[in-house]
Specification:
Helices cover 43% and strands 9% of the residues. The chain is mainly alpha-helical. The protein folds into 3 domains: 30 residues, no CATH class; 45 residues, no CATH class; 84 residues, no CATH class. The longest helix is centred in the middle third of the chain and has 14 residues.
């Protein structure tokens, strides 16, 4: 058995991977973060595939209850969700926290299907009074909503616009790119 650094008390409470190795340099921090950020997860098998495998493993006259029990036990053994993620989901807690808010704006013609926050931003930007010098990007970055009131943010939001287009080397293909950039960065005029 390998000697793994751990704290027994924390391991019993956390029930997940913990690493108590000290990080001693900036390079060690960057290596640690990039290792976990790029770590791929193996997807679980589809239930239909697991069921086929269970059916092949059992004899033809096995009771259905045996196959279903094996299917359930097999699916529980797969770890798609950690205990921490399940608790966060059950309690309605967020799975992440950002120090700055992120606002996603859809600039497609079907922007209304991207949820109420996108609808509020675009609709309220269209009917803004006294903020005629602001572009949609600046409006989303600087203002948040409380009820029907637009309030100035304490910290500027990070604005993500979709679709994320890049200009092409062929200028004849860039019309959509320029159209979306003007919607985002040119102040609206009546």
């Amino acid at each position: 058995m390998a000697n793994v650094k751990h704290n027994a008390f924390v391991t019993r409470l956390w029930r997940a991977n913990t690493d108590f190795s000290p990080i001693t340099s900036k390079d060690a921090v960057l290596n640690y973060i990039s290792k976990y950020a790029s770590k791929g997860e193996i997807g679980s098998e589809a239930y239909s595939e697991v069921l086929k495998r269970m059916m092949q493993r059992n004899v033809e006259d096995s009771p259905a209850a045996v196959v279903v029990r094996q299917l359930l036990l097999s699916s529980v053994a797969e770890r798609n969700y950690s205990a921490q993620k399940v608790i966060h989901l059950l309690m309605g807690w967020p799975l992440y926290h950002c120090s700055r808010p992120v606002v996603v704006i859809s600039l497609r013609h079907d922007w209304h299907r991207f949820g109420s926050s996108n609808t509020k931003i675009v609709a309220r930007y269209s009917s803004k009074d006294g903020l005629e010098d602001l572009s949609l990007f600046e409006f989303a970055k600087m203002y948040r909503f409380h009820g029907n009131q637009a309030l100035l943010r304490h910290a500027a939001a990070i604005v993500r616009a979709i679709p994320h287009l890049k200009p092409s080397e062929d200028s004849s293909e860039n019309e959509e790119y320029y159209k979306l950039q003007s919607k985002l960065h040119v102040p609206r005029r009546e």
